[in-house]
Design brief:
The protein is an alpha/beta fold. Helix 1 crosses helix 4.
């Protein structure tokens, strides 16, 4: 996936990291509501082998990029213009979030909005205690 900052990201590049993979759209109210929680958790856990990835779908590049900028998103984020990623993960509703462990196995699929408490429960279960 091409990210909004001009880079390229493949989940295979994130091997050995805990991944929170979120599918969203700028027009989706629950997606807009949950995005600040992802940003907060990204800033809290980014130095602990955790990566948040946002995949916009069913959206225009302009709208998706505009909302991501407005929301102050700093984690890797882009638009699945071909729907290849959407099809691979069989995403049928928004928001949808996948919690993926360091071995690349999907541990949980959430088909509703995430909040900070839910994100912390997953991340704490995947990481060694500090």
């Amino acid at each position: 996936m091409e990210t909004f900052d001009g880079g390229t990201l493949r989940l295979s590049d994130l091997e050995g990291k805990v991944v929170v993979l979120n599918f969203w759209a700028s027009w989706c109210p629950p997606c807009r509501w949950e995005m600040p929680f992802f940003e907060t958790m990204w800033n809290e856990y980014r130095d602990r082998d955790v990566v948040f990835v946002g995949v916009a779908m069913s959206d225009t590049l302009e709208d998706a990029q505009g909302f991501a900028e407005e929301a102050g998103v700093t984690y890797p984020i882009g638009l699945d213009q071909t729907n290849d990623i959407v099809r691979a993960y069989e995403v049928r509703s928004l928001p949808t979030t996948f919690f993926i462990d360091k071995e690349g196995q999907i541990q949980r699929r959430l088909t509703s909005a995430a909040n900070e408490a839910l994100l912390k429960v997953f991340l704490r279960g995947q990481l060694p205690r500090e």
